[in-house]
Design goal:
alpha+beta, 4-stranded antiparallel beta sheet, 22% helix, 22% strand
Length: 103
């Protein structure tokens, strides 16, 4: 098991996977509103942190590399706050972007 933040993430959630998200979806957590922008693309430094040369490749191929979010309403998030997914236009899924990137 890895500690929270070990993969460079700024926010860790539970129960929401990249396969359920689309570009433009909004997440409300506490006072904060976030917009799904794209799948996370880990950099070469992850290989060093994980201790093997293909960590970035393997994470990208898994489809579970994380998500880049933009903040549309700043505020406070506390551990245990409810997370609400508000669907966007649902034109481009993160899953399709991950599959395209790893092909």
């Amino acid at each position: 098991p890895l500690a929270f933040g070990a993969m460079g993430e700024n926010l860790t959630t539970q129960g929401l996977l990249e396969t359920s998200l689309w570009v433009g979806d909004r997440l409300r957590i506490g006072d904060v509103e976030l917009v799904v922008e794209s799948p996370r693309r880990p950099c070469f430094k992850l290989n060093a942190v994980m201790g093997y040369a293909h960590a970035v490749r393997d994470m990208s191929r898994s489809g579970f590399s994380g998500v880049y979010l933009s903040v549309t309403r700043p505020g406070v998030i506390r551990a245990g706050d409810a997370m609400v997914l508000m669907p966007g236009l649902r034109q481009v899924s993160l899953d399709s972007l991950n599959r395209h990137q790893s092909a």
